[in-house]
Design a protein that fits this description.
Layout lengths: L2 H13 L12 H28 L8 H14 L6 H7 L5 H18 L14 H13 L5 H9 L1
Helix pairs in contact: 1-2, 4-5
Length: 155
Amino acid sequence: MNIYELVQNLYQELCSPQDNISQNQPQSYDSQVYQQIRAVINTASQVQSVQLQSKKQGYFRWTEALHRKFCIICAALHWDQARPKYICKFLPELSSEVVASHLQKTRNELRAFGQRGVPIPTCFQNDATFLRISEYWVQNHSRLSDSEIKALLLQ
């Protein structure tokens, strides 16, 4: 039921003849009806605005630990081949839109630094996990398996 129907029903209910109301009602009755309808409209518009606000997605804040996991997955898959849907297999608590946005942002940052090979974000340059991933890529020239990626995430 939309606001118009709600107001129309309320108005009909309030203005319908009742046994205890005489036909020669003073003018104040109309103003009471008007005020009640106005209150319903205000309440309905507030409810509608709350519903619209709740549909908006909030800003997602990446924690350092979550960003590290994300970077491990992307480095293990190689940044150019990493896809949001596949990353979400390892991080199911995130939506693919959030992952896609973060992947694009991180790729752009890595390109800005002009890193070659298997790029490692500068904040993780000395991290043993990323060094292992780099060595694996140099030796095998292929991405890590799902079980190897899961093992890296548990460290």
